[in-house]
Specification:
5-stranded antiparallel beta sheet
C-alpha cells in the first residue's frame, strides 16, 4: 500500500467550504494497493463496494499535517483506512489561495502507517485552500465568496522533449501569462486527441496506467502544470466529459461561462493565437488582450501595422492600457492620443532612411526602428 503519486490533482485533495470566516475542509486520499500483481487504485473515503472489500481487513491509518508559511503546524488530522465517511476538519482564520493576487499555499505532509503505527509511505507537497463557485441566478463566478472575473487563455501542454524541457517551457509560458494579465487557463489536449475530453482521449493517463514513454511524459507534464498554476495563481479548467465547455479541474459542478460569441484565445496555435505560429514571441493578439487585462502600464508599437500612406508619411498602431499615448517620430513629438486599448496614428513623418518611432504612456515607453524598405 502506498500513496498514488500519479493523480494529477495530488494524492491528497481538500474540498473547501467557507463558513463565518472558517474553512470547513473535506478530505480525500488516493492510494495504490498491489493485489495479485495488479495495482488497485483506491480513494478514501471509499466510494464502491469493491474498494471496501479491498480494505476491509486493513488496520492502518493516514495522518495529515498542514503548516503555514512560517512552517508552523496549523492542522493535524487522522483517517483510518477502510473509512467510508469523509474526514472533515475546520481551520480558523485560513490563509486562502486568492489567485494571481495572492496564491497562498500550505505545506502538506501525509503519512501512511500500518496497524502498529509503523511508517509505510510518506508524501510532502503544497496545498491550496480555495472555494470556487458559480451563482446559479446570474452566472457570476466567485472565488472565496468574492466576485471573480475570468480572464481566460486556452493552453495546450508541451508534447515533445524531456520532462525537464517541458517543465522549463511551461515555466516560461507562466511568465508570459502573468505579463498578459490572464488569471484562468483552459487545458487543451493537443492536436492528436482531436479536442476530446482528457479522460476520453487519454484514459490510461487519467487512471495513472500509462506505460509508454509518451504517456508518462504527458502525465508528468499535466501534474507539473497544475502545480505551477497553483504556485502562480491561475485557476485551471479542462474540457467537460458530461457537458460541453470547460469545468474546474477541482470540481465538475463549476462550469466556465464565457460571453456569447466570444472565442477564448489559444496561447499557441494556428488560429486565434496569442503567439505567431511557430514563433517564440507574441503577436498582435497578445497585446490586444494585454491592453484589456494587464494592470502594469505598458505600450507596444505593432511592427506589422506600420504602413506607408499615399502622402509618403506613415500609419502606426499602438496597443496600451494607458489612457493617453504619445508618439515621437525621429525624437520629435508627433501627437498625443487618448483612448482605450488601441491607438492609431496617421500621417506620421519619417525624415531619415529608417522609420524611428517611440511610444510613451504613463511611466512606460517602447521604441521601434524599421528600414523604410520593410514598410508597404
Amino acid at each position: 500500500m502506498k500513496f498514488d503519486r500519479t493523480v494529477p490533482g495530488g494524492s491528497v485533495e481538500a474540498e473547501c467550504r467557507l463558513e463565518g470566516g472558517k474553512a470547513v475542509l473535506e478530505w480525500a486520499f488516493h492510494l495504490i494497493r498491489n493485489t495479485g500483481g495488479r495495482d488497485r487504485r483506491i480513494t478514501i473515503p471509499l466510494r464502491d463496494e469493491e474498494a471496501r472489500d479491498c480494505l476491509r481487513e486493513e488496520q492502518g491509518y493516514i495522518r495529515l499535517i498542514l503548516t503555514d508559511k512560517q512552517n508552523r503546524m496549523v492542522l493535524e488530522c487522522v483517517q483510518k483506512l477502510g473509512e467510508e465517511e469523509p474526514l472533515r476538519s475546520v481551520l480558523l482564520r485560513p490563509d486562502l489561495w486568492k489567485g494571481i493576487r495572492e496564491p497562498c499555499l500550505y505545506g502538506m505532509e501525509a503519512i501512511l502507517a500500518d496497524g502498529g503505527g509503523r511508517l509505510v509511505d510518506r508524501i510532502r507537497g503544497q496545498l491550496a485552500l480555495r472555494c470556487l463557485a458559480v451563482n446559479a441566478r446570474d452566472g457570476e463566478m466567485r472565488l472565496n465568496n468574492e466576485s471573480f472575473v475570468p480572464k481566460t487563455v486556452r493552453y495546450a501542454l508541451p508534447e515533445t522533449g524531456t520532462e525537464a524541457a517541458m517543465q522549463r517551457q511551461m515555466l516560461e509560458d507562466m511568465q508570459w501569462l502573468l505579463k498578459l494579465g490572464a488569471n484562468c487557463v483552459c487545458m487543451e489536449d493537443g492536436s492528436e486527441e482531436g479536442g476530446k475530453p482528457w479522460g476520453e482521449a487519454c484514459p490510461e493517463i487519467c487512471r495513472g496506467e500509462g506505460r509508454d514513454a509518451g504517456s508518462s511524459r504527458k502525465q508528468a507534464a499535466r501534474k507539473a502544470f497544475l502545480q505551477l498554476c497553483d504556485r502562480y495563481g491561475f485557476v485551471v479548467f479542462q474540457r467537460g466529459e458530461a457537458q460541453p465547455g470547460y469545468v474546474w479541474v477541482h470540481g465538475a459542478e463549476v462550469v466556465l461561462q464565457t460571453p456569447t460569441g466570444e472565442d477564448i484565445p489559444l496561447f499557441r496555435g494556428e488560429r486565434h493565437s496569442l503567439f505567431l505560429p511557430g514563433g517564440s514571441r507574441p503577436g498582435a493578439l497578445f497585446y490586444q488582450y494585454r491592453a484589456k487585462w494587464a494592470q502594469a502600464p505598458f505600450v507596444h508599437i505593432a511592427p506589422e501595422s506600420v504602413r506607408r500612406m499615399e502622402s509618403g508619411n506613415y500609419e502606426v498602431l499602438c496597443y496600451s492600457n494607458c489612457d493617453r499615448v504619445a508618439l515621437y517620430s525621429d525624437g520629435v513629438l508627433f501627437e498625443f492620443k487618448s483612448g482605450e486599448g488601441a491607438f492609431s496614428f496617421r500621417e506620421v513623418p519619417a525624415r531619415t532612411p529608417s522609420v524611428m518611432l517611440t511610444a510613451e504612456g504613463e511611466g512606460c515607453f517602447q521604441s521601434l526602428s524599421l528600414h523604410k524598405s520593410f514598410t508597404k
